[in-house]
Amino acid sequence: MAVADFANANPALQAAHQFEREVIGERIRDKIAASKQKGMWMGGVPPLGYQARDRKLVIVESEAEIVRFIFRRMPNAVRSDC
Question: Is the pTM value of this prediction over 0.85?
């Protein structure tokens, strides 16, 4: 079905497609949330001091020391664990 034809398609068919898109989106969000709950790294740029390996974050000691230095120098810095 061409894009132009879809605008003229049966409204019930359009509703079914919309429902299926929503279900697929829910499944993907649930899968990502479950993977995060298991501690799996789900992509993106790892934070300074970490490297992504086998879907886990592994400490890179040379970079982690830089992060520790920064936090030692700024004792009043806002921390994300608060």
Answer: no
